[in-house]
Amino acid sequence: MAKPDPNEFDQAERTPSKIGESHEQGITHDAVFGDITKDGPNYRDIGMLGTAVLMIKSQIGLGVLSIPFTLHALGMVPGVLIIIAIALMTCWSNYVIGIFKQRHPEVYSIDDAAGLMFGRIGKELFAALFCLFLLTTNQVFTFCCGSALLSLSIALNALSLHGACTAVFVVVAAIVAFLFGSIQTLSRISWLAWVGTVSILTAILTVSIAVSRQDRPAAAPTTGEFHSDYRIISSPSFTDAVAAISSIVFSYAGVPAFFNIASEMKDVRHYNKALTICVLFLTGVYLVIGILVYYYCGSYVASPAPGSAGPLVKRVAYGLAFPGLMVSCILPNHYTAKYLFVRFLRDSKHLTANTFTHWAVWLSCTGGVALLAYIIASAIPIFGNLISLIGALMGTILSFQPYGCMWLYDNWSDGKANPTWWWRMMVCWSVFIIAIGSFLMVSGTYASIVAIIDGFKADGGTRPWSCADNSGST
């Protein structure tokens, strides 16, 4: 098969029935949402910049707080190379989502794509994985929301000097996620992504500046001369290395949410532009912040990173990051609930009409997702290990393997009949993506489970549903 046409998005969009077709004045028919009218929510209303910031916020947040610690585990140079490699691989996965969505406009989420490729069993398997991962991102997002609730509870503990039981703070975070996550459309919620992105960046920049100017990181010995012991190349154990790589995977694991975001774009021709902005911005931030903080802190870097700058700066950083951490709860809650909502009401008039059924199902979805995320955040209250487990167990299978399969699904038959060098190269690349994702999933899950077990066994370790202060945990 010939090399893909760079104007493929334009060509697909020029056919109205591919995306949405106006068949009456004021009524648009969408392949996913059905008839969209002015009397109901408009699910096709996100512009290019709104799309870009939703992509960015679906990934940035929790992950950037753990990047300096992963550089310590891997070493500066290997860590940077792995970040760039994972960025390129997930960028390709995101690109394939845009192409696949254009060719199959009825696809709303990753389980729809799995259904086309693997049938009903594949659809239900990926539906379960998608919902679990979203409960913990973003992007699939239940687990992402759970770790976001945990991160928000850490912030509340830091700001209040442990003014209340940590379990109470997790409940507060879950309520916030439910209330704001219940806003119906992504176009109405995209402003939160702007707030969240600016908030997180301001906080992390504050920490970076603080650690570069302070005498020593908070965890370093208080006496004697201090020199950062950062390592160019480290020699971690297999489990430590894989767990660190899984954390990086989690930092880019918002991939599945890009299906949902693309489905609500006004003009899908701008998908690639938004994706380019997202990948360049995100990778630049990860590299700059990760290198800077690790360079100055060395082995005394904390996870999350604000703990490296001492009690005062930590409180300031969490205060600045607080809106962003709330958005990190809200967006995954919205994505997961929206997936369930569309699944329950698809091909029904209630999907796009403000009826009692519409609101009852929608609020049940957002409330149920917030409750499950709360349970997850309270049951595994160890920030770094939770991120590694999510990245390994579900972040990989939702960010790598399906997209290699999607490319093969769309291109195998035609390419096999007339193979070219480009087709052969892309087949090899797709198989590589599937293989590396499978390896990281199995090995990373094992390493993360071992780390969680060790954490629970350690003296003074954080326990499930604990009232203990978690703002200084690693």
Continuous helix count: 17
Structural class: mainly alpha
- Which strand order do you get reading across the main beta sheet? 1-2-3
- Taken together, the total number of domains comes to 1
Unreliable runs, pLDDT <50, ≥5 residues?
A: 1-19, 137-149
CATH superfamily: Hydantoin permease
The SSE string, one letter per element, is HHEEEHHHHHHHHHHHHHHH
Distance between the termini: 49 Å
* CATH fold title: Hydantoin permease
**CATH architecture annotation name:** Orthogonal Bundle
β-strand percent reads under 5%
* Fraction of helical residues: 55-70%
Kindly state the mean pLDDT as a whole number?
Answer: 79
Q: Strand count, sense and closure of the main sheet?
A: 3 strands, antiparallel
Quick summary of this structure?
Residues 11-23 have a biased composition (Basic and acidic residues). With 474 residues, the chain is mainly α. It contains 17 helices and three strands.
Topology (elements, then pairings):
Layout: H1 8-13, H2 16-19, E1 20-24, E2 27-30, E3 34-37, H3 48-59, H4 62-74, H5 76-103, H6 110-135, H7 142-160, H8 166-181, H9 186-213, H10 238-251, H11 257-263, H12 271-297, H13 310-345, H14 356-379, H15 383-399, H16 401-417, H17 421-457
